[in-house]
Amino acid sequence: MHFTTLETERLLLRMTGPEEYEAIFRQPDEAIITLLGLDSYEALEKEKERQWKGRTTFNKSFRYFFLCDKSTGQTIGWCGYHTWYLDHFRAELGYGLFVEEYKRQGLMSEAMPVVLQHGFGEMNLHRIEAMASPANEPSVKLLRNSGFTAEGLLREHYLKDGVFEDSQVFSLLRNEYEDRNG
């Protein structure tokens, strides 16, 4: 299977959109688990359900980058745009590392500039949005260090482990990104 791949010093970022996901889900279960970096067959079933129910509509799509350790090829996380409103030139950014031993090494900070450049450059976005729990200090720091501005708070926005949590809303506009990055 061929992926368009971007690189950083320590990472390969394998780009996936609707077409790549279609191809991924034609693979045997074990291959899907490896490609997506899933940790169980239960996680695989959740991903299959998301795929069957449709990740895109006529005006909404996605573009993910699976983060792979350059030295091992292991999928260790993802970063990308899970809610891309084509008509409005905006998308919501999401990210996460699956493997505990890779956390707190600056890998997401390393991937973020490449993903943001792709969003404003290749996807022609005007606005990138992100949400983070105010208690998730690493995520809030990552967004602020990447140039995002805090806009407000969505109260009891996510359900996590049976508890409703707030989400802090962040955004980065094209002109802010260009001013910051030349």
Please supply descriptive tags for the structure shown above.
single chain, alpha+beta, eight-stranded mixed sheet, 6 helices, 8 strands
List the helices and strands and how they pair.
Layout: E1 5-7, E2 11-16, H1 18-24, H2 29-36, H3 41-53, E3 60-69, E4 75-85, E5 90-97, H4 107-121, E6 127-132, H5 137-145, E7 149-160, E8 163-173, H6 174-181
Parallel strand pairs: 5-6
Antiparallel strand pairs: 1-2, 2-3, 3-4, 4-5, 6-8, 7-8
Give an overview in words.
The protein has 182 residues and is an alpha+beta fold. 33% of the residues lie in helices and 37% in strands. The protein contains 6 helices and 8 strands, in the order ββαααβββαβαββα. It has an 8-stranded mixed β-sheet with strand order 1-2-3-4-5-6-8-7. Strand 5, helix 4 (107-121) and strand 6 form a beta-alpha-beta unit. The N and C termini lie far apart (36 Å). The mean pLDDT is 89.
Strand percentage, roughly? 35-45%
Can you count the beta strands? 8
Give the number of helices. 6
Poorly predicted regions are: none
Helix content: 25-40%
Terminal-residue CA separation: 36 Å
Overall geometry: globular
Average pLDDT rating:
89
Question: Going across the major beta sheet, what is the strand order?
Answer: 1-2-3-4-5-6-8-7
Rg, Å, rounded: 16 Å
Describe the structure in brief.
The protein is of the alpha+beta class and 182 residues long. It is built from six helices and eight strands. The chain has helices spanning 18-24, 29-36, 41-53, 107-121, 137-145, 174-181; strands at 5-7, 11-16, 60-69, 75-85, 90-97, 127-132, 149-160, 163-173.
